[in-house]
Write a structure and sequence with these properties.
Blueprint (H helix, E strand, L loop, with lengths): L1 H6 L1 H20 L7 H8 L1 H4 L15 H25 L10 H23 L6 H13 L1 H11 L1 H20 L5 E6 L4 H12 L5 E3 L7 H10 L7 E5 L7 H9 L3 E4 L7 H4 L2 H13 L6 E5 L3 H4 L8 E6 L7 E9 L2 E8 L4 E7 L4 H16 L4 H10 L8 E5 L2 E6 L5 H12 L5 E5 L9 H13 L4 E5 L5 H9 L7 E4 L2 H8 L7 E5 L9
Parallel strand pairs: 1-3, 1-4, 2-3, 4-5, 5-6, 6-7, 11-15, 12-13, 12-15, 13-14
Antiparallel strand pairs: 7-8, 8-9, 10-11
Helix pairs in contact: 2-5, 2-8, 6-8, 9-11, 10-16, 10-17, 12-14, 18-19, 19-20
Length: 524
C-alpha cells in the first residue's frame, strides 16, 4: 500500500500543472457562465480529450508489479511533455491565481483525496492496475472534474460574492454626494470610460473602473479596493453576456448618469438577436432616476428607434445629424491625431477640439465624454484641456514605433464596425500597409459573413496580409480571394509572435495594423 501511495506522486504533480491550463480556460470562460467553459471543451476536443493521456487505458493489460512502474513512468513522461509544451505555449492572458482559484484547487484535490481514500479502504493489490486505470481516467477527464469542482464551489462563491457586494454597497452609500456614471454598449465602453475620466478629472476628483473590468466582480473590486471616499465621480463600465445583466449592475451602482455608446453585434452568439442586445444595453438607461441624464448616440438607428420608457433627460450626440444636442463636424485625421469642431445646441457655441487618438469612431467616443463634462458643468476651456489630455487607449488604435515601422495596435477585441474603422485609419497612412489579424469571433451564425466582408475590405486597403490561424481565418481568406487579392501577399501563421518577427524587417515607415488578438481559448 505504501508503494501504491508513493507511485501516485508523479501523477498528482502532473495533475497540479495540467489543472493550471484547465483553470486558465475556466477563468477566461467566466467560470462557466452560460456554460461557456463546457461549450469550449466540446469545441476544442483536439486540445482537451484527443491526446496522449488516453494511453493510460493500456495499463489494464499489465500485471500489478509492471502496472506500478508503467504508471510512474507514464506520468513522468507526461510531466516532461507538459514542460516542453509550456516553453513554446503562447499565453496572452495567463491564469491569475485568485482566492477563487485557490478554493477550486482545494476542492479538486479534495475530490481526488476522497477517491484515493475509497481505494485505500477497499484496497486489494490484485486490483492494482484497475486502481491506476480509475485514477488515470480521472486525470484524463480533468477538464470535466474541474467543471464539477466549480459547480460544488458555487454555494461558497455565492456567500463570498454576497459579502463583497454588501461591502461595496455600504461604501457607495457612505459617499452620499458621489456622482455615479454608468457606461455600456456593444463597443467602445472602455475607451469612453477612460475618456470621460480624463475629461472630468480637469475639474473633479473622479475614479473609473480599471482596464476592461466590467463584470459584477470587477465593479465590486473597484469599489472595495480603489474608490476613494473623497471621490466626486465614479465611472462604472458595465458589460453583459445575457439579458438582465446590465439591470443587475445598474441596480447595484444606482447611477444618476448613463452613457450608451453603440448597439452592435458583439456577443451575438450569446444574445441570439440584435434586438436582445439593444434591450439589454438600454437596461442602464431605463434604470436611471427621473432627474437623471442619458447620453445617447443619434447615429445609431437602434438607439433612435428605441421607445424609451424612462422620463430622464436625454442628450443626443452625433457625427452626422445637426439636430443632435452636441454634434461634431469638419473632422480632420492624420498620423499625428485628429481635430474637429463641436457645436453645443444649448449655448449655440462651436468649439475646435484636438486629440492625439485616431479613428472617426473615437470622435463619437470623445463626444460622449464632452457631453458628460458639459452636463457636469465644465466650461469649454476645461473640456478642450480634457480632450487634449486623452491618451491613446492601450491596444485600441494605439500608434507606436516598432523597429523601423509603425504599429497601429488595435489588438483588444474586434467587431465589424471597429474593424472597418481601423482599416479606414490604416488607409489614411502613407507608405506600405499591412494587417495582422485572426479575424472576429462571437458573432453567431453571421460570423463567417462578417469575416468574409472584412476580407474584402482588407483587399481594398492593404498591400500585405498576415492571417493568424488557418481555420479561424478561412472566411477572411475567401473574402480576399473573391476581391482578387494577390495570394503571394497573404501569409498564414499559427502564432501572432511570428508576425512581429516578420514585420520588423519591413521597409521604413510601413504601417502595420494589429487587428484583434484572440485570447488563449481561441488558439488553434
Amino acid at each position: 500500500m505504501l508503494y501504491f501511495l508513493l507511485s501516485l506522486l508523479p501523477c498528482l504533480i502532473y495533475l497540479f500543472y495540467k489543472s493550471k491550463k484547465s483553470f486558465q480556460m475556466l477563468q477566461q470562460n467566466w467560470y462557466n457562465d452560460s456554460n461557456r467553459y463546457i461549450k469550449w471543451i466540446f469545441s476544442n476536443l483536439g486540445k482537451t480529450l484527443i491526446n496522449l493521456e488516453f494511453l493510460i487505458v493500456l495499463i489494464i493489460f499489465f500485471n500489478n508489479k509492471m502496472a506500478l512502474w508503467v504508471f510512474i513512468l507514464f506520468y513522468l513522461i507526461m510531466l516532461g511533455i507538459y514542460y516542453y509544451n509550456s516553453k513554446k505555449d503562447q499565453n496572452k492572458k495567463p491564469l491569475v491565481i485568485t482566492n477563487r482559484i485557490k478554493r477550486l484547487y482545494f476542492t479538486l484535490y479534495l475530490l481526488f483525496a476522497i477517491l484515493i481514500i475509497i481505494i485505500l479502504v477497499t484496497f486489494n493489490k490484485s486490483y492494482l492496475s484497475i486502481y491506476y486505470l480509475i485514477i488515470g481516467l480521472c486525470i484524463y477527464f480533468n477538464w470535466f472534474i474541474i467543471a464539477l469542482a466549480n459547480f460544488l464551489n458555487r454555494p461558497i462563491e455565492k456567500m463570498v460574492f454576497k459579502h463583497y457586494k454588501n461591502m461595496a454597497s455600504q461604501k457607495l452609500a457612505s459617499i452620499p454626494n458621489l456622482k455615479k456614471i454608468g457606461i455600456t454598449g456593444s463597443y467602445g465602453k472602455t475607451s469612453v470610460k477612460n475618456m470621460v475620466q480624463e475629461v472630468l478629472k480637469v475639474k473633479y476628483n473622479s475614479y473609473a473602473t480599471e482596464k476592461s473590468f466590467n463584470t459584477m466582480n470587477g465593479l465590486m473590486l473597484a469599489i472595495n479596493n480603489k474608490l476613494d471616499k473623497y471621490a466626486d465621480c465614479f465611472i462604472a463600465e458595465m458589460g453583459a453576456f445575457h439579458p438582465g445583466e446590465i439591470k443587475e449592475k445598474a441596480e447595484f451602482i444606482q447611477p444618476q448618469y448613463g452613457i450608451l455608446t453603440v448597439v452592435g453585434t458583439a456577443h451575438l452568439e450569446d444574445f441570439k438577436t440584435r434586438e436582445n442586445i439593444c434591450n439589454t444595453k438600454f437596461e442602464l438607461i431605463e434604470s436611471l432616476p427621473s432627474d437623471g441624464v442619458a447620453i445617447l448616440n443619434m447615429d445609431d438607428p437602434y438607439q433612435t428607434g428605441y421607445k424609451l420608457k424612462n422620463k430622464c433627460r436625454v442628450i443626443w450626440i452625433s457625427l452626422k445629424n445637426k439636430k443632435a444636442d452636441i454634434y461634431a463636424s469638419d473632422i480632420k485625421i492624420n498620423q499625428e491625431g485628429m481635430s474637429f469642431q463641436v457645436t453645443f445646441k444649448d449655448t449655440k457655441e462651436t468649439v475646435l477640439f484636438k486629440t492625439r487618438v485616431l479613428g472617426i469612431h473615437n470622435v463619437s467616443n470623445i463626444l460622449c465624454a464632452i457631453a458628460m463634462g458639459h452636463v457636469l458643468g465644465l466650461n469649454t476651456n476645461e473640456l478642450k484641456l480634457g480632450v487634449k489630455n486623452i491618451k491613446s487607449i492601450e491596444h485600441r488604435l494605439e500608434l507606436k514605433r516598432y523597429h523601423n515601422i509603425y504599429l497601429i495596435d488595435d489588438a483588444y477585441n474586434s467587431n465589424p464596425a471597429g474593424a472597418k474603422m481601423a482599416l479606414e485609419v490604416l488607409s489614411l497612412m502613407p507608405g506600405k500597409k499591412v494587417i495582422v489579424t485572426p479575424g472576429m469571433i462571437e458573432l453567431g451564425s453571421e460570423q463567417y459573413n462578417y469575416n468574409k466582408e472584412f476580407g474584402r475590405n482588407i483587399a481594398s486597403v492593404c498591400d500585405e496580409v498576415i492571417l493568424v490561424g488557418l481555420m479561424q481565418t478561412k472566411a477572411i481568406m475567401d473574402g480576399l480571394l473573391e476581391a482578387d487579392f494577390n495570394e503571394e501577399n497573404i501569409h498564414i501563421i499559427n502564432d501572432v509572435k511570428e508576425a512581429f518577427k516578420m514585420v520588423k524587417d519591413y521597409p521604413k515607415d510601413t504601417y502595420v495594423l494589429l487587428e484583434n488578438d484572440l485570447p488563449d481559448i481561441f488558439n488553434e
